[in-house]
Write a structure and sequence with these properties.
heterodimer, A: alpha+beta, Alpha-Beta Plaits, 2 domains, three-stranded mixed beta sheet, two-stranded antiparallel ribbon, 5 strands, B: alpha+beta, two-stranded antiparallel sheet
Chain lengths: 223, 199
């Protein structure tokens, strides 16, 4: 939504960092230009990258356990003791089971999937629940919880008169608001909710304010 | 390089996870290719669906060489040590016990980390709209950094809360500890509450 610099020549230039934007630009442009002028770049705000402590700890524990056990057993055999039975069984199994055996194929498949999963973990930022905020101060990098953003927007929308209940679905780049209104004309309520929430989104102080869609309905008749 | 501890750990974790993933994909893929009878080149580890994962002959190939067992034990030992270090590194939080304050007259004073954390927490909580703040000092004695978790009260504006934090609370901490800069990572959450109707 926030096009950092006005794209006068869209196709060739600026293909480096801020290329993700043009999609949302055409949708609803009002209210945003002010924002884009004020709050963007001196330095581009990057996403938060997870340290991946838990996957790393798990992989480390598995490697440690496996090699530790093998090391112990190899050393024990060197010291003229008998190998543990699992090792002999494993060796027999590895030498006896053909590759197209169901178990081998399944194990290989699982190994590949596990590997892909680890590669994904290694290369994606993670922390999808954290929305990066604008740099208000050069020293401070801040992130807002998606849930907190949703709650803040919900509270704003509830203040509009005629609104009975609000559901906010906060995405990383879009926020969908569904309000139920029990009095006042729907169009008026929608206009008010939109106005209030446009301010609300601005107040969140996000680096990339999400695109807002508002739906207002009457309460469904039950009975 | 003055990278903070967590940034180093993040890079190490992601590199090692990526390597492990790559290894698993290659190994599993190599077995699958042979098992599914794809046309594998002649140097492939396994020749076809009828091959086995590890023949006794292959397993025992170097067993009688004098260098074999010492090498196996050494390699396994190194892997065990590295894995142990990697595992333990995940539990280190890198919290700073003290900060070095430059007094300007050649002497250095030491400020307890807990004290600075406490002051920052009090300052951050004193702001309007902040229900609770937790501060952890990280980095190094001469170049501390902070991690701050703010819990926002209902109806607080996240943008304003952040502005207050960056403006006042951190400013005071910086000046009182005589720091040129105090890089901060802040995470804002909200107190859960029900929707309240005003009309």
């Amino acid at each position: 939504m926030t096009t950092p610099e006005r794209p006068t020549v869209p196709p060739q230039t600026g293909g480096t960092g801020g290329a993700g934007e043009p999609g949302g630009a055409g949708e609803d442009g009002d209210g945003v230009p002010v924002l884009a002028g004020a709050g963007t770049d001196p330095r581009r705000v990057r996403r938060f990258w997870s340290v991946r402590r838990i996957p790393a700890a798990l992989v480390a524990a598995v490697v440690l356990g496996g090699t530790g056990l093998l090391l112990y057993d190899v050393a024990a055999v060197r010291a003229d003791r008998d190998a543990m039975s699992w090792r002999r069984e494993l060796a027999d199994d590895l030498a006896g089971r053909p590759l197209d055996d169901g178990l081998t194929v399944a194990a290989a498949g699982v190994t590949v999937l596990l590997g892909v999963w680890l590669l994904v973990l290694a290369s994606t930022p993670g922390l999808r629940a954290v929305l990066p905020m604008r740099r208000a101060h050069p020293d401070v990098r801040a992130g807002l919880d998606r849930e907190a953003a949703a709650v803040a927007l919900r509270d704003r929308a509830m203040e509009v008169s005629g609104v009975q209940s609000v559901k906010v679905r906060m995405g990383r780049s879009k926020v969908a608001v569904r309000a139920v209104s029990h009095f006042r004309p729907l169009d008026d309520v929608r206009a008010d909710v939109e106005r209030v929430l446009t301010d609300g989104v601005e107040d969140l102080g996000l680096a990339r304010p999400p695109a807002l869609t508002v739906r207002v309905d009457r309460p469904s008749k039950k009975g | 390089m003055n990278a903070p501890v967590t940034a180093v750990l993040r890079r190490v974790n992601r590199t090692l996870l990526g390597l492990a993933g790559l290894l698993l994909v290659v190994a599993g893929g190599a077995v699958l290719a042979a098992a599914l009878d794809l046309a594998v080149p002649s140097w492939w580890l396994w020749s076809g669906p009828d091959d086995v994962l590890l023949t006794a002959a292959r397993r025992q190939r170097w067993r009688d060489e004098g260098w074999w067992w010492p090498t196996v034990i050494a390699v396994l030992g190194v892997v065990v040590l590295l894995a142990l270090w990697w595992l333990l590194a995940q539990f280190r939080r890198g919290r700073l016990a003290e900060v070095l304050v430059d007094t300007g007259d050649g002497d250095a004073a030491v400020l307890r980390g807990r004290a600075l954390e406490g002051v920052l927490e009090a300052d951050a909580t004193a702001q309007e709209g902040v229900a609770q703040a937790r501060v952890a000092l990280t980095g190094r004695r001469t170049a501390p950094r902070t991690r701050i978790a703010l819990l926002l009260e209902p109806y607080a504006s996240p943008g304003q809360a952040l502005a207050g934090l960056g403006g006042e609370a951190l400013d005071r901490a910086r000046t009182s500890a005589g720091l040129a800069e105090l890089p901060t990572e802040a995470r804002l959450r909200a107190v859960k509450h029900r929707a309240r109707r005003v009309n």
